[in-house]
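Internal tracking record. Fields below are filled automatically when a chain is submitted to the structure queue. Please do not edit lines marked as system-generated. If the sequence contains nonstandard residues, flag them in the REMARKS field before resubmitting.
Queue: standard
Priority: normal
Entity type: single polypeptide chain
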Amino acid sequence: MTGTADIRTETFFHEMRDGIFRRTDHMFATLMIIQWAFGMICALTLSPKAWEGATSYTHPHVWAALFMGGALSAFPIAMAIMKPGEVYTRHIIAISQMLWSALLIHLTGGRIETHFHVFGSLAFLAIYRDWKVLVTATIVVAADHFLRGTYFPESVFGVAAASQWRWIEHAAWVVFEDVFLIKTCIQAKREMREICIRRANLEILNEEMDAKVTLRTAELARSNQELQQFAYIASHDLQEPLRMVSSYLQLLKKRYQGKLDQSGDEYIHFAVDGALRMKQLINDLLEYSRVGTQRKPPVLTQTETTVDHALSNLKVAIEESDTVITRDPLPAVMADDVQLERLFQNLIGNAIKYRLKDRAPQIHISAKKSDQDTEFTIRDNGIGIAPEHFERIFDIFQRLHTAEEFSGTGIGLSVCRKIVENHGGKIWVESEVGKGSTFHFTLGEKK
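SYSTEM-GENERATED OUTPUT FOLLOWS
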């Protein structure tokens, strides 16, 4: 991993550095054009036409700005366009930029203000984050000040005669600035490398996480396949012998009930009941497994129609219990319509089943839509649930009542939770013993 991280770090570092080199080359290409125009303005305003008697002529500085400035700009501009990012391109730009400083100093007659162009140019060159470019620029500045200070001091210092050591003073100020700029370049290069190290490590970490996710996904797919195989076995291989056991036990009960003693009759009854409950548990377990394995892509589902189907399936229970069901307008949602119908059927069916003995069930269905999801509410006036059981009731095969009180295996609400989670939502209950229950569930707006 360390070797891979080092390789990627170097790759990222070179990409980042080359990007800086190219962008800075292009910046200087633009700067060269601006300086050329500025040089012409200086030549025209600070060196106007000269007069000799009745004759006037254009000052040589104008031609110097036009042709010499053009020569200083054209080559680095071409290099920045044709060879951006190359080592020799930025060194050529550095040489040209410092010669531009020399030309501007000459055009302004050696004014001290123009000398600051040298320091500004060095600061711009530091954008490369390459200290060697600053060394090249400094050599050009020192050589220019030495030669012009020796043979043409007025051009660089603005005086007809100057000390032969004055160029050293100017060069020393340039070196003074270089010390800080070079230190900044080295520090910036170090920070770039640290950024690249973090990026390389983060990319490797992401790849490892992706690999783990892929592995977990494959394991989950394999688990689902095993669950489907189990469902097949449970629906065929297990139920077949169970049906045989149940059939013979019921036949034994029919033929020999009353011919055995009381204990014998009870044993047969318990055996038949156990076989029937085992069959129901297997069927419920199959139903629970199908919720996860037989999912359909969500489609736009009219909840009103889905609830109508669920109520139609519960018609007998509704009529026998004199249940009164009311509802608000229900919105359309993106859902698996089959699972959504089962969800409403289970919750409404539970509200009918867990009713108070002296009161007809009253159930109200409502919905509230938001940008993130849709929340449905099913409120009843049944027996209610104690707060300490709010989470437990959604666990598979968890029952709060005996089979004699209320029939069932405790699978219904666990199926509801699985359906809701398949739709990116959550389900919860608010209830008080003897005062009914209100079930809430949300469906995420998955397109």
